[in-house]
Amino acid sequence: MKNEKKEQIWAFHNEIPAEQMPTWKSRRIKAYGDGMMLVENEFASGETAADHSHPHTQIMYIIEGKIETTVDGETRILGAGDAVYVRPDTVHGLRALEETRMLDIFSPMREDFLA
Amino acid sequence: MKNEKKEQIWAFHNEIPAEQMPTWKSRRIKAYGDGMMLVENEFASGETAADHSHPHTQIMYIIEGKIETTVDGETRILGAGDAVYVRPDTVHGLRALEETRMLDIFSPMREDFLA
Q1: pTM for the full model?
Q2: What domains lie within chain A, and their CATH numbers?
Q3: Is some CB atom of chain A closer than 8 A to the CB atom of B73?
């Protein structure tokens, strides 16, 4: 159920399966190579991603909707067009305040997402 | 006029200056560290980014609108939610078919954008 084609050039939204996540609506792995991975997530209002950390650098980007996110102990509300840079091994989590679509970009790629 | 704060955690759209580009409407450097950089572009319908290449890996992601893009000699039309993975040193360019907002994500970061 994953888009496991490393360095595949074209990624059309409708051709990429949505994985249902334990605490949020869906995740789609859109594109990746060794150096980075682009993932799109959909949250229903009130859904959460629990606090966690990983050695990968991460950028979050809000496409539409609104989230409350905590990064390294600081909490902010983000809307469409806002972004967050999460340094390696930094605790972060979020709660959707509305129906939200957002991107997670990881560097290097999340090998664990393809396991 | 650039968001030159490396590894800055919070990036609010309204606080980031838009740079007018030679052949398209605007570019905003949203977030970056050594390993990656997130850039948001706005194109008016008909505007273009000429064919070019660079040693950085790049992922393009369409937030809204529609583009025709050519990557390594192959041309496709992309809309909201579609993405493209551009390998290093691969020629790519695009033409907006509608008013379009899209993201460019680079790995490693584009030092040249901050020059």
Answers
A1: 0.96
A2: 26-109 (2.60.120.10)
A3: no
